[in-house]
Amino acid sequence: MSTLTAPDEAPTGTPSSPEPTRKKRSKNHRGVSPALRAENNVVRSIGVFLLWAVVAVSIAMLLWMVLQAFRDTRSILGSPWGMPDSLDFSNFVRAWTVSDFATATFNSVITTAVSSFLTVAIAAPAGYYLSRVESRLTNGLSLYFILGLGIPAQVILIPLFVMLNKVYLTDSLIGLNLVYIAGSMPFTVFLLTAFFRSLPMEMEEAAALDGATALRTFVQITLPLAKGGILTAFVLQVVAHWNETLLALTLIQSTEKYTLPVALISFVQQQTYSGADWGGLFAGLCIVVLPMLIIYIWLGRRLTEGLTLGMGK
Asked: What is the CB-side half-sphere exposure of residue 160 using CA atoms within 13 A?
């Protein structure tokens, strides 16, 4: 007589059931995404090499520009790839005083700070409303802002000048600020709308149950949660408005109202008639470029996190 025995008996009181096998998630190998992982991928290797080549060339050109700002014109023309003998700041002093970069810097700081702050201050409530209300009106407004992203500044330049001239806002920093705010609104609203949609709504629902108004919920709950996205939008607007040249060159005619990019163009034009001062020109380039580079190095990590965090939904 044969007896059947179970190979592995379950403990008393618990039914025996096979445990499902769990697959362990493969870890990222050497920082490479699994979608791009390939040992013999020639295309990927070429792409990585070209990417690092562009980065190396960009850093080398930036360092070369900074070094040439400490040399005079004769030494630059004699040896373009040479090194400065000493840290002589006379080129920066000449660009700051003779070329009136001091006034231009003040105008750029005021214009950039005011336009960037007001752009984010107006776009944040608009983006929050568009992200929380679903209706035909909000869908139409979202489409309106998206269409604004596809209109280049060159197309509206002449009508914009004529319109501002009729209200006496040409050759005015106030008019330039208004143009910067209006031109930056589509992108900022689009960015913040996507970011607000990625935020959880549980805290807002709890605040509504406690009797908080929509304005109080937005100011005390949503804004602190969205500080990463708001900082990202603000930094992007600061960089864009600081480097903007076309609108400022068209709308501003007075020398005392020049922004830094326009003052740099005027300085280059002066050198055409009075003799090229390459050392002063490189110093002027450093004055324009280095502030934004410092801001990006300081806030680069937060900027990247703010851009990618809004992709959750």
From this structure: 21
CA 106 to chain centre: 22
Cα separations (Å) of 182 from 118, 120, 151?
10, 11, 12
The answer to whether the beta carbons of residues 247 and 179 sit under 8 Å apart is yes
Between the alpha carbon of residue 244 and those of residues 102, 239, 247, the distances in Å are 18, 9, 7
Return the SS3 of 11.
coil
Kindly write down the DSSP assignment for every residue of 244-295, as one continuous string: --HHHHHH---GGG--HHHHHHHHHHHHHHH---HHHHHHHHHHHHHHHHHH
Across the range 234-238, mean pLDDT stands at 91
128, exposed or middle or buried, with CB in 10 Å at 0-12, 13-18, 19+? buried
Whole-angstrom distance, CA of residue 65 vs CA of residue 26? 45
Confidence band, pLDDT 50/70/90 cuts, at residue 313:
very low
Mean pLDDT in residue range 173-188? 93
Phi/psi-derived region of residue 213, left when phi > 0, alpha when psi is between -120 and 50, beta in every other case = beta
Q: What angle do CA 81, 87, 90 make, to 5 degrees?
A: 100
Identify the CA nearest to 126 among candidates 181, 164, 173: 181
Q: How far apart are CA 140 and CA 204, in angstroms?
A: 25
Determine the Cα–Cα distance for residues 221 and 297; give it in Å rounded to an integer.
29
pLDDT digits (tens, 9 = 90+) for 287-310: 888 888 888 788 767 666 666 655
The pTM of the full predicted model, rounded to 2 decimals, is 0.77
Q: How far apart are CA 64 and CA 83, in angstroms?
A: 9
Indicate if the pLDDT at residue 238 is higher than 50.
Answer: yes
Within 10 Å of residue 48's Cβ, how many Cβ atoms?
13
3-state secondary structure of 29: strand
Phi, psi of 128 (to 5 degrees): -65, -40
Question: Bigger pLDDT: 87 or 10?
Answer: 87
